Amino acid sequence: MASTEHKAPGAESTHTLRLKTSSGMATLELARKGRRYDVQSFEVDGHPGRVLAFKASGSGVENLDETSDARQCFGVSTRIRIDGVLLDSREMRASSLEELEAALRKAKVQPFDPEEI
Q: Which of 26, 44, 65, 71 is the S-S candidate for 79 at Cβ 3.0 to 4.6 Å?
């Protein structure tokens, strides 16, 4: 996973991460505010319009999304917790960027097309 940090003096920091997903490589852009990382954009190479989601099973994975359309239609979750790190399609929470990157490496990222719901 490659990451890039951008920070203007006195401003929140932004991070660009490259992720391996079930649909191919993707770019995830985050804005950090303390422990919170707001998802600014998510784009899967060659598949515009896909939404960030995760496989909600596996060692140490806690599913926090039982009722969304994505969960009901595709069996994926838009909100999980791995080793105390919250991964969500809109916001993530971790003590450090390294902790967040480790959780994202452990997670199975499974984007979906919301038009298929």
A: 65
Who contacts 85 (Cβ-Cβ below 8 Å, separation ≥6)? 92, 93, 94, 99, 100, 102, 103
What is d(CA 56, CA 18) in angstroms, rounded to the nearest whole number?
21
To which residue do tokens 């999980």 refer?
A: 80
> CA-to-CA distance for 90 and 117, rounded, in angstroms?
19
pTM for the complete prediction? 0.88
Tokens of 56: 């909600």
**H-only helix segments in the chain:** 69-74, 97-106
Parse the chain into domains and list their residue ranges.
3-116
For 35-72, write each residue's pLDDT tens digit: 999 999 999 999 999 999 999 888 889 999 999 999 99
